[in-house]
């Protein structure tokens, strides 16, 4: 592939886009209020800021309220803001590779594309239903993440388990974003190629700018930039659709398209795998859950996530179709690996004028920045609630968050320099999340409403352990000679018998069986826990944890859960 974007033009695009988003974040944080009319502030910010009363409370409490708003943007954002935020934060630079690779692989084709599109959109539908339930379960706690839900519902052990898995997933996501944006610039900027100094410089630039503006503006800043990024992405996709399809070199006949557009068994396996994998992972994405508390009310939450999910679906399908067109143009090159499926989108860009290549750089820089800043805010949300609860100095909390973000970003940038396959990275994180998603969210089950046993902390924790054990056993079953010595290798889902990353049934069955076994472990150990310990008690209780009920409430609760077991028996 030959592209002719100059190094100077590439840097100009990168820093212009990042500076624009930084300016928006500074405005949203209120640092430029003195220089802007209120009408301009309202137009740019578009969400409720703290009232004068809130500011008085903030001053008297050492900044506690301001820090809560910085981390949660609580009850401030309407339907459009939530929709654009979910859309922009969930669609990173990786989409240029992910669904395009599905479309350019005739073994996966339409079902692979639809699987990726549905799987990427459906977490928003789940959050539409689960979000209000989680908010209700943490009412009065000023929560802003599912780790807070785990602490309230279960205890410290499950809180730490959820936090560890969430941070791991979001860190992998960061690695994938830095890898993707670096590779895209390296592909389009002609003089640099894949020189490590250049690709690392791109990743560092995105990391530094996003850490800076999220450190200043927090979640409100991320939501503001997401609105502009979402509008920009939708506009650019429309323009790219027109441009790509109007270039004579990209035109294909119905017969050529029929070769690329297939419905295959491997495509179905990929569809099932992706839906389970991405739902499991995205329910641990605290960047998504922060938007639940940021929503102005439940209708705004549901409409916003519904609209955002619809936009995500169509964007993913767009890139999938681009992959099919690329394959249909030159199937022989893709079949012989002279061209690679994950680069199919760039195959369509090659005959276009340089101006379109620059437009794509604007597009992917927006994608990367929107995802990275959301992930950074999600990571800080995990660490902050307990510090707020125990009255830590708000300024100290913010500096601690910034220090953690710097460390996490440095680790992600270093890892991204190794240029792992983006799809493989996500599958590792997805499988880790699949081991624990059911035990955690089974905590929302209401025995009186659903007629099922509600998990204890021990039951939920053992469910997570059961999920991990299932992965290890699955690896030995798939290839005992490879995985018997180190069964944890199966988390990479390397299947010698499969022809592509999502082909074959082994990965699909792993993603089906792991959540099922984790549910069975959760139910069995919950039943045993209630029978042996006689009630719902956390595995670890610290003196500084507030009691949520008096002794009578605790006794009543124990009797209630004893009766659950008797009913089940």
Automatic annotation (TrEMBL):
Organism: Chaetoceros tenuissimus
Keyword Signal applies: no
Gene3D superfamilies the record matches: Sodium/glucose cotransporter
Membrane-topology descriptor: Multi-pass membrane protein
A Pfam family it matches: SSF
UniProt subcellular location: Membrane
Keyword Transmembrane helix: yes
Keywords, alphabetical: Membrane, Transmembrane, Transmembrane helix, Transport
Record GO terms (molecular function): spermidine transmembrane transporter activity
Residues passing through the membrane, by range: 12-34, 79-97, 109-130, 160-186, 198-216, 228-247, 267-284, 305-328, 423-446, 458-478, 508-528
Name of the protein: Uncharacterized protein
């Amino acid at each position: 592939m030959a592209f002719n974007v100059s190094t100077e033009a590439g840097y100009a695009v990168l820093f212009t886009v990042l500076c624009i988003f930084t300016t928006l974040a500074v405005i949203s944080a209120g640092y430029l209020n003195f220089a802007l009319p209120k009408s301009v502030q309202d137009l740019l910010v578009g969400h409720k800021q703290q009232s004068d009363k809130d500011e008085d409370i903030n001053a008297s409490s050492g900044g506690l309220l301001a820090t809560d708003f910085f981390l949660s943007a609580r009850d401030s954002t309407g339907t459009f803001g939530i929709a654009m935020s979910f859309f922009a934060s969930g669609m990173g630079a990786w989409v240029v590779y992910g669904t395009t690779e599905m479309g350019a692989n005739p073994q996966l084709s339409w079902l692979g594309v639809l699987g990726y599109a549905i799987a990427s959109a459906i977490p928003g539908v789940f959050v539409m239903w689960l979000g209000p339930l989680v908010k209700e379960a943490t009412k009065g706690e000023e929560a802003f993440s599912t780790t807070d839900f785990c602490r309230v519902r279960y205890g410290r052990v499950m809180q730490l388990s959820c936090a560890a898995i969430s941070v791991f997933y979001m860190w992998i996501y960061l690695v994938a974003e830095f890898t993707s944006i670096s590779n895209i610039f390296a592909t389009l900027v002609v003089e640099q190629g894949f020189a490590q100094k250049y690709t690392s410089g791109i990743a560092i630039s995105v990391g530094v700018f996003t850490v800076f503006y999220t450190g200043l503006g927090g979640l409100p800043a991320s939501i503001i930039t997401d609105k502009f990024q979402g509008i920009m992405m939708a506009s650019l996709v429309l323009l790219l659709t027109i441009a790509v399809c109007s270039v004579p070199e990209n035109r294909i006949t119905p017969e050529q398209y029929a070769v690329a557009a297939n419905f295959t068994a491997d495509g179905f396996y990929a569809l099932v795998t992706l839906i389970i994998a991405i739902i499991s992972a995205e329910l641990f994405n605290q960047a998504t859950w922060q938007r639940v508390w940021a929503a102005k009310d439940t209708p705004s939450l549901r409409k916003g996530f519904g609209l955002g999910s619809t936009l995500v679906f169509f964007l993913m399908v767009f890139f999938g179709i681009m992959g099919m067109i690329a394959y249909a143009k030159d199937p022989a090159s893709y079949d012989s690996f002279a061209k690679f499926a994950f680069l199919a989108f760039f195959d369509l860009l090659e005959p276009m004028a340089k101006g379109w290549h620059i437009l794509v750089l604007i597009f992917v820089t927006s994608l990367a920045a929107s995802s990275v800043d959301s992930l950074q805010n999600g990571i800080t949300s995990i660490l902050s609630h307990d510090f707020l609860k125990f009255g830590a100095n708000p300024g100290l909390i913010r500096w601690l968050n910034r220090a953690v973000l710097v460390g996490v970003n440095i680790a992600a940038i270093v890892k991204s320099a190794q240029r792992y396959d983006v799809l493989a990275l996500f599958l590792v994180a997805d499988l880790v999340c699949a081991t624990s998603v059911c035990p955690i969210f089974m905590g929302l089950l209401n025995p009186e409403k659903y007629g099922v046993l509600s998990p204890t902390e021990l039951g939920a924790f053992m469910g997570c352990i059961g999920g991990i054990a299932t992965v290890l056993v699955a690896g030995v079953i798939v290839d005992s000679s490879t995985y018997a010595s180190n069964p944890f290798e199966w988390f990479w889902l390397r299947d010698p018998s499969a022809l592509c990353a999502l082909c074959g049934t082994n990965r699909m069955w792993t993603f089906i069986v792991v959540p099922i076994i984790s549910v069975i472990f959760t139910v069995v150990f919950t039943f045993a826990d209630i029978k042996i310990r006689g009630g719902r008690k956390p595995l670890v209780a610290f003196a500084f944890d507030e009691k949520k009920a008096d002794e009578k409430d605790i006794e009543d609760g124990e009797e209630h859960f004893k009766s659950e077991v008797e009913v089940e028996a």
